[in-house]
Amino acid sequence: MTVESIDTSAYHLTNDMGKVALMKDRHISLAEKDTVQVFLYTNKTGEVVASTELPTASRRMFGWGEIVESIPNLGAFIRLHTDIEILVSKDELPEDNQLWPVTEDHLYVHLQLDKKNRLTAVPAKESEFNDLYEFAANAELNDKVTGTVIRPGEEGTVIITDKRHRGFIHHTERKKPRRLGEKVEGRIIEVKEDGTLNISLFPMKHERMDEDAQLIYDYLQLQGGTIPFSNKTDHEDVRATFDMSKSAFKRALGRLMKEGKVKQEDGKTILLEDK
Description:
Blueprint: E1 2-6, E2 10-15, E3 18-23, E4 39-42, E5 48-51, E6 63-71, E7 75-81, E8 84-89, E9 106-113, E10 119-123, E11 144-151, E12 156-161, E13 166-170, E14 183-191, E15 197-200, H1 205-222, E16 226-227, H2 235-242, H3 246-258, E17 262-265, E18 268-271
Parallel strand pairs: 13-15
Antiparallel strand pairs: 1-2, 2-3, 4-5, 6-7, 6-9, 7-8, 9-10, 11-12, 11-14, 12-13, 14-15, 16-18, 17-18
Helix pairs in contact: 1-3
């Protein structure tokens, strides 16, 4: 495009397709009648603007971007370069908005024009990660892994790990469904013959007992030292309050009693002083 005019904040560019503003910054200096190559996109206010930067994704190529804002009934804006923020439409996000990405989550996207001829970002389908995956040749059971959610779901979650392995998290190996684009950390519980991984977001049993015991202890302190829970409490009540199984709850209570931190009395658990 050609610089048609300049004001205090922007260069005003033109070509045979129309006019657009390029905001001034310290990285570029232009004069009238100069030509410049720019990338055009629709910003948050619906205005077409220009950038001299190129996005990390295009209409023909996928790339990673960081979510900067999630807006109910609209979608989420993803940053594909320093100043390029493009809408991911709600139509391209999970039906359950609790699974939408939030600020600082990451999506792997490509660009397309929507029905109104606006440039938008579209998250990659699970099958479109196939060329990224690597065979998990050296993975070991209980190795720690981190990765990004590429397919959320009630029954299970699919991630691509930081080492580009495919990982599956069954719903029994997490406390809650995970968001699209969320960063998670877990451990390997199975290395499959096809080079993919099964992953748990729970710590190992002996570590989990420490974590569960601390959760109950903290809850006791918040509740003034007494809670209406004991070894005989219904498992559904335990799950609703502590988000753990009845067996895990009993193990954690047993640890606290063995350490002399609590006692059980009349169906209640009571925090002991000076312990």
